[in-house]
Design goal:
Elements (H helix, E strand, L loop, with lengths): L1 H25 L10 H6 L47 E8 L28 E4 L1 H4 L8 E5 L11 E8 L8 E5 H6 L6 H5 L4 E8 L9 E4 L7 E7 L9 E5 L13 E2 L1 E4 L2 E5 L8 E6 L5 E8 L7 E4 L6
């Protein structure tokens, strides 16, 4: 009798476990829950996938079903001529989430902090990246060419996407969880939906230089910033496209001239950098941006003394 009870319990447990696994596999999106990406980014362990419509995804069976604890090496840094420092393509897998012709998250943002990625210059050609691509936020803004060859609907023509979000549950060592727009862009003409119905596909990718014609590096002062706390989102960097360090220079109160002293800002989350101070910070502010290749760019007094939260301040400089 005891053995029979044990068998029933064991069988029941297996059924429950199988059901849970099926739900996870069928869930779709492997990206972070976008409305709480600050908390998710700071969490010591990855949170479970969201079940709301913003990340329920149409990626098909298997999207977000496996986690690789051993990190893959990061792909090569982009070179100035727009090609990967390695001439070959690397293998990856791709899924998609959100609306079929959307930009991914329902707020058109993501765990990098970028705003309105459905609009130019991002134009919904965006992707969540797993850790070798997202790089704990320092991969935000990186540009990659992707192409697919294996599926009959694949065009084989490279398309460029930008990392704007975090992928916590990869299905491969390199995993692009693309917007519906970006996933469909890899298809032959009039076969976008056919390719999206595939759910998970094998792709190839390589790092390329970002190009934002006509744009300069811009700085969005985040909501919640105040005289003692300045949080800045850095956007639209040509070349590497990413940011590994931001430094701030204040100005003198008496004549608004730069102090000549650079103070390092701290990465808050994604591509947002902050400065905390026990005294009011004195603008105008100059910002020095360093990218992954070690190149620096200085935007002199780009944020005025009378700055306001939720405003964008464009510089007159750009990476080569």
């Amino acid at each position: 009798m005891a053995a029979a009870v044990f068998f029933k319990v064991s069988l029941s447990s297996r059924v429950v476990a199988a059901a849970l696994l099926w739900l996870l596999v069928a869930h779709g999106s492997s990206c972070a829950k976008h409305k709480s990406h600050k908390a998710a980014h700071a969490a010591p362990t990855p949170p479970p996938p969201s079940s709301d419509s913003s990340s329920s995804g149409s990626g098909g069976p298997g999207s977000g079903g496996y986690y690789y604890p051993t990190p893959s090496p990061p792909p090569p840094t982009s070179s100035s001529n727009g090609s990967s420092s390695s001439s070959g393509w690397l293998n990856a897998r791709a899924t998609w989430y959100g609306a079929p012709n959307g930009a991914g998250p329902d707020d058109n943002g993501g765990a990098c902090g970028f705003k309105g990625v459905n609009l130019p210059p991002f134009s919904a050609m965006t992707s969540c990246g797993n850790e070798p691509l997202f790089k704990d936020g320092k991969g935000c803004g990186s540009c990659y060419q992707i192409r697919c060859l294996a599926h009959p609907a694949c065009s084989g023509i490279p398309e460029t996407v930008i990392i704007t979000d975090m992928n916590y549950y990869p299905v491969a060592p390199y995993h692009f969880d693309l917007s519906g727009t970006a996933f469909g862009a890899m298809a032959k003409d009039e076969r976008n939906d056919e390719l999206r119905h595939a759910g998970i596909i094998d792709i190839q990718f390589k790092r390329v230089a970002c190009q934002y014609p006509g744009l300069t590096v811009s700085f969005h002062v985040e909501r919640g910033s105040n005289p003692n706390y300045l949080a800045v989102l850095v956007e639209h960097e040509n070349g590497d496209g990413d940011v590994v360090q931001v430094d701030l220079m204040e100005s003198r109160a008496e004549d608004a001239s730069p102090t000549g002293v650079w103070e390092p800002m701290r990465e808050s989350w994604g591509s947002i950098w902050r400065m905390d101070s026990r005294r009011p910070l004195q603008g105008p502010f100059s910002l020095r941006v360093t990218n992954e290749s070690g190149k620096t760019l200085v935007a002199d007094q780009v944020i005025p003394a009378d700055w306001q939260p939720d405003n964008v301040y464009s510089s007159i400089v750009q990476f080569d």
